[in-house]
Design a protein that fits this description.
Strand content: under 5%
Low-confidence stretches: none
CATH topology: Four Helix Bundle (Hemerythrin (Met), subunit A)
CATH class: Mainly Alpha
Shape: elongated
Structural class: mainly alpha
Number of strands: 0
Order of helices and strands: HHHH
Largest sheet: none
Helix content: over 70%
CATH superfamily: Hemerythrin-like
Bound molecules: fe (ii) ion
Number of helices: 4
Mean pLDDT: 89
């Protein structure tokens, strides 16, 4: 997963969305740190924060896309739901605190998914929003 410093190249051009993405990635990096230290209690707490932040962000993003009549909205909503589901799965594993290899695998898959959403999914609508005059 990319560090926040590298993240600027994935900016959408809408300050609210970009700030949310930065926040979400910052939490993920903290989860990764906690996982490396096998601090599963902290991981579970951070994932709570992650889910809360992500759900709020997704609602705001979907609202913008709905307003702009983005044709890929439904597909994008499914992406968002999947990410929340994956985050909750990692969290459940952390709460059990069993099988560090499994937790790591599950977390990595979630990171890949987050990257796919923010880097690919969200960049897909960037151009659409620019053409609609909503993003710069
Ligand atoms: Fe997003
Ligand atoms: Fe998204």
């Amino acid at each position: 997963m990319n560090e926040i410093a590298e993240f600027t190249k994935y900016e959408i051009g809408l300050a609210d969305i970009d700030n949310d993405h930065r926040k979400i990635i910052a939490i993920m990096l903290r989860v990764r740190n906690a996982l490396q230290k096998k601090n599963y209690k902290l991981c579970a707490a951070l994932l709570d924060e992650f889910v809360e932040e992500a759900e709020e962000h997704f609602l705001a993003e979907e609202k913008i896309l709905r307003h702009a009549r983005y044709p890929g909205l439904n597909k994008h909503i499914v992406y968002h739901q999947e990410l929340i589901w994956q985050a909750k799965s990692v969290q459940a594993l952390c709460e059990e605190a069993r099988g560090s290899a499994k937790i790591k695998r599950c977390f990595e898959s979630m990171c890949d998914f987050l990257t796919a959403d923010i880097v690919h999914g969200d960049l897909e609508f960037k151009e659409f929003l620019m053409e609609a005059g909503i993003a710069k």
